[in-house]
Amino acid sequence: MTTSIEELLGLQRPTATHKKESNNQISFSLLFFSDVRKDVTDKQKYEFVRDITVFGDRAGFTAIYIPERHFYEFGSIFANSAVMASYLIPQTTRIRFRTAGISLPLHHPAEIVEWWAMNDILSGGRVDLGFGSGWNKPDFIYAPEEYAERRKICSDWIPLVQKLWRGETVAFPGPDGELIPIVVYPRPLQKELNVWLLVTKNNDGFFYAGRQGYNVFTMLYGNNFEAMREKIALYRQGREEGGHDPKKGIVTLMLHTLVHESRDLVHKVVELPFKAYIKSSLDAHVQALDDNEGVSAKEKAKILDYAYQRYVKTAAIFGTVDDGRKVIDEAIAIGVNDIACLVDFGVDYSLVKESLSYLEQLISYYSNSQGGQDINR
After folding, report:
1. Can you tell me the distance from the alpha carbon of 169 to that of 311, in angstroms, rounded to the nearest whole number?
2. Which residue from 95, 152, 334, 369 lies 20 to 30 Å from 178 (Cα-Cα)?
3. Arithmetic mean of pLDDT over the chain
4. Residue 358 CB: number of other CB atoms within 10 A?
């Protein structure tokens, strides 16, 4: 059991790094996922999300990614991503709003399209949706009968969401099992929906996402850069076999991010909150495992310390602008073309805001030397 948790947290020795391939394009987004701080109110957390989003809108970030979380303090302020987006949309002009992601089996496909069509209209067509199957059993009090087949349901329902988004008629069971054909209103501005699929370790998932023509949202849980390179290659192969341009399709990689002029300052301020963040994430995943009694407190502490050391050194954008470029160049070399910077992992808000000017310097290097992101339709 300890091994599986270590794999879950990505506790693998990194392999050799690779130089930046100058012909690749990279875009930058912002991700909100977790804020577990207990010294600020939920309202202050929402205001922080707003402030970071407004910064991203001004500074040229491509998108923000909004999660869906339920019934656990880890990320619980994001109970409904559509509501979160509707709060932020009027305060922005260009940044896109993406989900990372909607637990599709918890919702009716028509409900998802109704919510996000409204946001698409309000934002002027700046909505993209990412989907996952869900994993946390308590979440499925909303749809208990869907838990066992959640992965199949997610695969089957994404095409239904796409059809409804286009304005096609789809029939769903109504009272007494009667099939009722419906068209969803209001109609979104975008005729086609850009879809992301959340995939982390499953090679078949990367291939499937490519074959379906989806984009991919992923992270380094259980992976190092070299392992991720192989998964991205499978994704490109899947796109080609599915009749899609293998050079298109966006691979979004989540990386925890704090950039400052002082590397020592960054490492000092991230240690306690980031360890607390990892512990909260670890506890949530352990609760979801069938046999979690085999994980002792000592084993958890060992995993926690190793996970922290690994993330700081090899799997996060922590340090100076130059430190950040090394990580980003390695991500580009393996085929990543969008980096989602996760900034709400517990560091003091004032310091995060102070660090934004350095983050802006970091991404400006790439925006000045490379083209923008191509959103495939």
Report:
1. 47
2. 152
3. 87
4. 18
